[in-house]
Amino acid sequence: MKSRGRVARALVSIALVGVASAATAGVSMPEVKSTPSATGRDYLVFYADGARDTTARAVTAAGGVVRSRDDRLGYLVVRAAAPEPLGEISSVVGVTPDLPIGSVANAPLAGPPPRMSGGANAVAGEPLSDRQWDMRMIGATPTGSYATARASHQVLVGVIDTGIDGRHPDIAPNFNRQLSRNFVTDQPNDVNGKKFDGACEVAGCKDPADVDDDGHGTHVASTIGSPINGIGIAGVAPDVSLVNLRAGTDSGYFFLKPTMDALAYAADVGVDVVNMSFYVDPWTFNCTANPQDSRADQLAQRGILAGMRRAAAYAHQRGVTMITAIGNSGSDLGKPSKDAASPDYPLGAEKERTVDNTCLNVPTELPGVIAVSSVGPSGLKAAYSDYGIEQTDIAAPGGDVFDSGTSVIGERREILAAAPEAMLRAGHQIDAAGNPADASVVRDCQGGSCSYYQYLEGTSMAAPHVTGIAALIISRFGVPGKGGLAMDPNQVEKLLYASATPTSCPTPRAFKYGTATQTCDGTKERNGFFGHGIANAARAATVTP
């Protein structure tokens, strides 16, 4: 697991800080007179409402080739020599390079699922539950939410991440193999030949939809919905269905098209809630007209904003509750002044530029998206967690190695959740005999087989606690709908906040984390560190509309 200081990237424990094609099926394209011999690269060209055909003709006149389109989100995939001529078309609102990572893939799964024991009737109290200070903090315990609300298998939780190890013993019982999809193609090297994802593990570089070579998505999924089965740990919603919506590369990048594809697919198949512990690469902050950016970069950022706004709106209108990690840079997102981390692709392309509050981090600052900040065992906001009175909606345990809380086993102040064995072996974090070779790794052996878990911290770890609680709420109040149950995301959000534990700003408000000072604005009912409060599964199990 790498940590590049990217928003919503999990921090290593020692660190501080087949649907896309269906969109065009049965819809006639406007006549275009382009030829397939056009050179250049592919761009996502977002057009104004009702301007698809006009835009397609103008693209052709400008020398571009329309290769495909997505009518749901209003864009064309265009092969062109450069973005600037496309950006001059009056009906175009953004032109973003289709970075060579993602396309929808109904990738085959790696064989049948393993036979598992346990399930809903297993005794609450998992072998490693004494290490889960995070679950005790939010009341996800045998005497708390587990007693009355464990979610329902009819609730579909989509994990938009680096993948899910669907064969992990503590995920497999709740893994929905039928609906899981991989929306990315691994890329060994970036466009300049620098190592990016590394060697492909499978032919065609498309991993099966039950594989996670990074580990980030598996950890997230485990926190949401590891079952109560006598193995390892339990998640917040131990009876939920987990759907892998992979939009992240092995190296942990999330580019626009696969992210939009994942959100649109979630909406189309009836997913109830999605977890998004990432930001959309390559820009930490997307500005529409930053004078320090080239015209091409301005168009690209406009495209990301247009595309993600449309994808989020499409999902929200179709009943998808969206939860995101707020980020790990320890900064007030409402008062940004400098961005030195963008663009982060190709590798080494970063430059320092001045930004302001008109420049947005996505998906955190999108309408309809619930942003989660992180707290440590003491309940204090983690030093690395981003914050902001406009941005923070709710808080949850994400870990903090520098927190003063002591009610944790072995003084570990991070979050323990499932880890793929193959990933740990590849990273030499377990030895040839299967013994942990890294202090962050824990092994649990039951019935002759072993499973692995890892301590990680970050807002990536906080968000899935809230996602799990959202699943509990949907299980309680959802009605029959597409995919199983359905519930208005606005009502889910309302009950999430109503069940949270209101938490005041620290005293003094200008709180010192070592030599850094972070200022908390707002009231106990809503502030920049904790939003509406710290998420509470036990209260969500009893809250009423």
What features would you describe in this structure?
With 545 residues, the protein is α/β, with parallel strands linked by helices. Helix content is 20%, strand content 19%. Strands 5-7-8-6-9-10-13-14 form an eight-stranded mixed beta sheet, sandwiched between helices. Strand 7 (181-184), helix 4 (216-225) and strand 8 (241-246) form a beta-alpha-beta unit. It is globular. Residues 1-25 form the signal peptide. Belongs to the peptidase S8 family.
Can you tag this structure with a few keywords?
545 residues, eight-stranded mixed β-sheet, four-stranded antiparallel β-sheet, disordered N terminus, serine protease, Peptidase_S8/S53_dom_sf, hydrolase, signal
Helix content: 10-25%
Q: Give the biggest sheet.
A: 8 strands, mixed
- Report the span from N to C terminus: 40 Å
Which outline best applies?
globular
Q: Which structural class fits the helix and strand makeup? A: alpha/beta
Number of helices: 10
Mean pLDDT: 89
| Low-confidence segments | 1-38, 102-123
Keywords: Hydrolase, Protease, Serine protease, Signal
Protein name: Serine protease
GO molecular function: serine-type endopeptidase activity
InterPro entries: Peptidase_S8/S53_dom (IPR000209), Peptidase_S8/S53_dom_sf (IPR036852), Peptidase_S8_Asp-AS (IPR023827), Peptidase_S8_His-AS (IPR022398), Peptidase_S8_Ser-AS (IPR023828), Peptidase_S8_subtilisin-like (IPR050131), Peptidase_S8_subtilisin-rel (IPR015500)
